[in-house]
Write a structure and sequence with these properties.
Layout lengths: L1 H7 L20 E2 L5 H6 L5 E7 L5 E10 L2 E9 L8 H17 L3 E7 L3 H9 L3 E2 L5 E2 L8 E2 L5 E8 L3
Parallel strand pairs: 4-5
Antiparallel strand pairs: 1-8, 2-3, 3-4, 5-9, 6-9, 7-9
Protein name: GNAT family N-acetyltransferase
Organism: Ideonella lacteola
Pfam family, one: Acetyltransf_7
């Protein structure tokens, strides 16, 4: 939970949590990205959480996978802000895709991305993800994952075929 909040919303954890990597969305969304109650709710029969252990204690990166039929929904991909840009996120994303294909037999990975995060959209496009249509959905403020700082903040869906 701490790693996810440091990656998405630096500064929330007080001193030592102010390092901002390139993936944070603090300018767009306020409040925690993940609460303890939400973290506990992630552990279901159709989910997996993959982690990379940090060499200096704590986690270096994590990702949540949820099986939805033949799709693998990827979420909470986070890397320690001090280590972002080192390839940790890319390695963990690739491991999540392999897991979904080889263990679950998923034929597609899907992810939701804040539409205004063009650099993040480009990151996923470089890894084979394609935007699903032109629709932009509303930011899910009612899900308790933070409040938009801008009116009209939107979310897009992106997909990647697995095993092709």
């Amino acid at each position: 939970m701490d790693l996810v909040n440091r990656a998405y919303r630096p500064g929330l954890g007080g001193p030592g949590h102010a390092v901002a990597g390139w993936t944070h969305e603090s300018a767009l969304v306020s409040g925690p990205r993940l609460t303890l109650v939400q973290a506990r709710g992630l552990w279901t029969a159709d989910t997996e959480v993959l982690v990379l252990d940090g060499s200096v204690g704590g986690l270096a990166a994590c990702v949540h996978l949820r099986r939805a039929g033949f799709d693998a929904c990827i979420g909470l991909l986070a890397a320690d802000p001090a280590q972002q840009g080192s390839g940790l996120g890319s390695r963990l994303l690739a491991a999540a895709e392999r897991h979904a294909l080889e263990v679950w037999g998923s034929d597609r990975a899907c992810i939701s991305v804040v539409a205004e995060r063009s650099e993040l959209v480009a990151y996923y496009q470089r890894r084979g993800y394609v935007r699903r249509g032109n629709e932009v959905g509303p930011y899910p403020a009612s899900a308790g994952i933070g409040l938009p700082r801008r009116p009209g903040l939107g979310v897009i869906q992106m997909d990647k075929p697995l095993g092709a």
